[in-house]
Amino acid sequence: MLVQTEHGRCYTVKEMKDWLKKAGIKDISVIMPADTVLIIGEKQQLKKGGNT
Prior knowledge:
The protein is α+β, with helices and mostly antiparallel strands and 52 residues long. It has one domain (1-44). The protein is 19% helix and 21% strand. Strands 1-2 form a two-stranded antiparallel ribbon. It is extended and about 45 Å long. The termini are far apart.
C-alpha cells in the first residue's frame, strides 16, 4: 500500500482484517507465502430485495 507514494505506509494484518470484518467479510484467513501476505475471506451474496 505504499508503492510509489510520498506518504504511504504499511498496514498491519490486523488493520486489514478489521477493514474486511467491517465490510461484512466472514471466514477470514491469512496465508503468508514467502515475503507476502494473502488475506482471504467470504462475503454473503445479497438476496433479491436487499436482504442477506
